[in-house]
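Q: I'm teaching a short session on how sequence maps to structure, and I want students to see two examples side by side rather than one. Could you give me a first protein with its sequence written out and its structure tokens following it? Keep the formatting plain so it prints cleanly on a handout.
A: Of course. Example one:
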Amino acid sequence: MHESLSLRGFRAAVSGARRAGPLALAGAWVLVAVPSSGAAVDKTEPIPAPAAGSTDTWWAVGGQATANTFFTPAFHSPYSNPSISFGPGPDLGWSFVVSLLVGARLWEGATVVADGEYANGAGAPNVSGLSGYPDGNIIRVAKVGTAPYVARFFYHQDIALGHEERQSEEAEQFESRFMPTGTVALGRARPPTRLEFTLGKFGSNDFLDVADASSDPRHKFLNWALMQNGAWDYVADTRGYTWGVEVGLEAPRWAVRAMAALMPTTPNGEVFDGNLGNSGSYMLEGQYGWPSALGDGSVKLLAYVNRANMGNYANALAVAAAGPPGTVPDVDATAQQGAMKYGFGLLVQQVFGPVSGFLRAGWNDGRTQTFCFTSIDYSVSLGAQVDGALWGRAGDFVGIGVATSGLSSSHAAYLAAGGTEFQLGDGKLSYGWETVPEAFYSLQPLPYLEVSADVQALFNPGMNRARGPAVLAGVRLHAHL
């Protein structure tokens, strides 16, 4: 996954970027790993994968910059909540995220990684009002702050459980996911049967519910309901990260992964709850893979339990019904320490030659309020990515997918009664499943630059049949080396 470059190769890359113009120069967000021998390697020649037991690459510095913009024309909207609803347009939303990563190998199988980020942008008009928000690059606040922050800071250890020949890293962008396959090994081959241990700050979706064709909004699908299992209220703060521990047992055909992580103190909050007796998220995923004549496939089953100071939709409706006429339910006012939310997810992947497809299905109890990700209780999504080599454009690819998302009866009734939460709340609701088709074309004009055109349609935006449909058009610019 990670190609080592010498300092001479890096200087040549930057020089070439300057000659190619300002867009190419944006690609100088560097991904560099310098061999400890100091030997020069010309970037125009193929670089072999590290041999088993190689110690050439012991540190790496990586970077990327991704900018998205979306235009939403005006669409049908008889009512809306200006502080939460999406649209009704015309609106322009944008986001810009820069990441700088540093990793070092401490000893055999051990890596420490720090990943800082800067984010800026604005929703259209809010980063809410949709269960499947169209821009996976942006965090869940209407106006993004400008202070840099630590996204990931963790220690990772691989422990070999056998004497099999080590396997090379997958051939994908080093920074495409940062975790877990690229950074933790710094491009070195890894034992095919191993015990993994990670401690620190990371994204829980770095390890779990990872789909090769959809789990990276910097390169692949942008809509929240397609880039993740929408019904998994995955533990995270406002910016999408948490502190925790992950343990995995990995084998060539199967894997088991477990994780425990800190929950935020409030819905979509920035502060983590250290009261481990009443708060925390606990996840378990099993995976089984198979080979086929056309390509590999796999199935993953995920279960999770979140505990936090969370409210209950039915309780909020009952409290409002007991109050004066016209009382609006407030799920936050029913919060109880140690409240539990649980759910399950299914992910099936299959490669068909140049096509990589996936199918996801998710369910959660739908009684306890949405706390971390987005307002989806039931979800089904499927899609595929097609390699541009089919039409003579190696490096390009096309993606097409669709996600449909629903709510529990008490969740829908809460919103219909005028209740709000951090993601949904139009003021009232004519309930219908939100359905989002998405298609994109990713063009690679330079090896370290990608430009994507993206189109999404929104049916029943915010689970509301009274609003929409809407069509969005967007552009994504991504630079890396």
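Q: Perfect. Now a second example for contrast.
A: Example two:
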Amino acid sequence: MKPTGDDRDRAVLERVAGGDVESFGVLVERHERRLVRLCQRLLQDPEEARDAAQEVFLKAFRKAGSWKPQGQVYTWLYRIAVNHCLNRLRRRKIVQLFSLTGRKSSAGDDETPFDPADEAPDPAARLAARERWQATRKLIGDLPPGQRAVLVLAKFEGLSYRQIAETLGITESAVESRLFRAMRRLVEAQETES
């Protein structure tokens, strides 16, 4: 039987726990793009997302020896990433509260961390689609962090309810409930804007 990606990830973690520091690079190569994309979708800032992903890998490296194989390695990495990003969002809210400034990216512009595919037939339709997406992206950014995390993991990362529950350390029914509330908030907000 050929080893799966998760079997290889587990072997890497075992080697790292045994002192083989160089092996961790394999894990980074396999999961870096996914984790940066996840952090970008949660934080809505590309530069901050890259920093967050590096910090997530550093945390994972430090915890490699204490990791207990209960699930898949990538869901363990996702859990670290989601928790790290939610903590960053909480700190950002505290800073905003005290500085009374609006939300902008670190570069001071309004970058789009994840854009929909641009297949509109003409410029006017493309512009309308982009404006709708920007409004939706802002609404996603305004969701409570727990709802935003579930929405991103389900709709953009394609994780199952079971995987999301494992990643966030909540029940599948809590995943379903948070996703329902997030989707309802988005629909209600879009209806009031129309």
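Q: What should students look for in example two?
A: Point them to this: Residues 100-105 have pLDDT under 50 and may be disordered. Also worth mentioning: The chain is about 70% helix and 0% strand.
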